[in-house]
Design a protein that fits this description.
The protein is α/β, with parallel strands linked by helices. The protein contains nine helices and eight strands. The structure holds BIS(adenosine)-5'-pentaphosphate (AP5).
């Protein structure tokens, strides 16, 4: 039976940081909806051009577009054993679409770790985040700095600050999260799938808690 895990949490909670580590440990494909949009933006595809305005304003890309994109990604052969989903689903409509899709394959979401972090901490995290241009590796100038400032430890590529990490956009992303995504906390709690993890702890401790929650949920 393939394994599907959904990482839930506000912008800057550490979903991408943890997904990078956990996907390697579990040998599970990491699917980040934000990374797929950014990749399309870089290549200036139609999807990238469509997503750009929503992303720059800190709004969600429309459900039908996002659901179609993730459905296509999950159908690829490298997802035969399942996937670690980061940033999807983000609305009840997306969560229902995912459940239907998986039911069609006689599968389901096994566990939803919810990384909780207060808003004040999120702003500090996002304003100090640096991302690798080649593969999206994530750093923080204070909490997780690269060995050489501006250069990715893993692949030597340039680090950049995301356009949507500007203060005004961050505020909007947090507001949008509270309005449109936070209902998923109850949605998954009601299904007995939610595992709450304190995301304010150091990165390695958050990883340990997440791994324990995932092993319990499987
Ligand atoms: P997306 O890229 O998914 O952004 P997000 O969910 O807002 O999450 P982030 O990537 O900002 O944060 P994160 O939780 O991954 O934190 P990270 O690990 O980087 O989405 C971007 C946009 O795309 C959306 O706004 C929307 O427009 C669109 N989109 C994407 N998915 C969509 C969907 N499903 N539907 C519609 N639209 C969609 O960590 C943050 C920083 O903190 C880093 O610097 C890191 O080093 C540091 N850090 C991490 N953990 C710790 C720790 N424990 N202690 C100290 N520092 C830490």
């Amino acid at each position: 039976m393939p394994t599907y895990i959904v990482l839930l949490g506000p912008p800057g909670a550490g979903k991408g940081t943890q997904a990078e580590i956990i996907s390697e440990t579990l040998q599970l494909v990491h699917i980040s909806s934000g990374d797929i949009f950014r990749e399309n933006l870089k290549k200036q595809t139609e999807l990238g051009k469509l997503a750009q305005g929503f992303m720059n304003r800190g709004e969600l890309v429309p459900d039908d577009v996002t659901i179609g994109m993730i459905a296509e990604r999950l159908r690829r052969p490298d997802c035969a054993n399942g996937a670690l989903l980061d940033g999807f689903p983000r609305t009840p409509a997306q969560a229902n679409a995912l459940a239907e899709m998986l039911a069609g394959w006689k599968a389901r979401v096994q566990c939803v770790p919810y990384i909780y972090v207060p808003a004040q901490v999120l702003i500090e995290r996002l304003s100090g985040r640096w991302t690798c241009r080649a593969q999206g590796h994530i750093y923080h100038e204070k909490f997780n700095p690269p060995v050489t400032a501006g250069i990715c430890d893993d692949d030597g590529s340039e680090l950049y600050q995301r356009e949507d990490d500007k203060p005004a956009t961050v505020e909007n992303r947090i507001r949008v999260y509270l309005e449109q995504t936070s209902p998923l906390i109850e949605y998954y709690r009601n299904q007995g799938l939610l595992a709450e993890v304190d995301g304010t702890l150091p990165i390695n401790q958050v990883t340990e808690l997440l791994m324990a929650a995932i092993q319990k949920g499987q």
